[in-house]
Automatic annotation (TrEMBL):
It comes from Cyprinus carpio carpio. This is Immunoglobulin V-set domain-containing protein.
Amino acid sequence: MMNCLSVCSDEISVKMGEELKLDVLLSNTKKVVHQNKISTEWTEVWKRRAGVRSDQLTVRDGNLTINALTVTDAGTYRVLDFDDEILITVTVTVFSLLILARDSQQ
């Protein structure tokens, strides 16, 4: 878990198809929103009392887990408090071993 005095920020790279556990569901977390790399819109992925917004997501022990990551899961995740202030920002990059292998051959 990240310990920050103000807004926490992190960058993570995860292989496509794997799961990503985000330790972001704090006691003062109201919701988690996501903006993927090709959109300007923020999409709510988790909200207190309503839970997750996708079958691909699960919640356990204060972690929001994204199962079987895809390219559309890449982007920025923001954790907002009850005043809609940003508590945590996580930037996620999803990579494929096929792309890495191809790039290393060039």
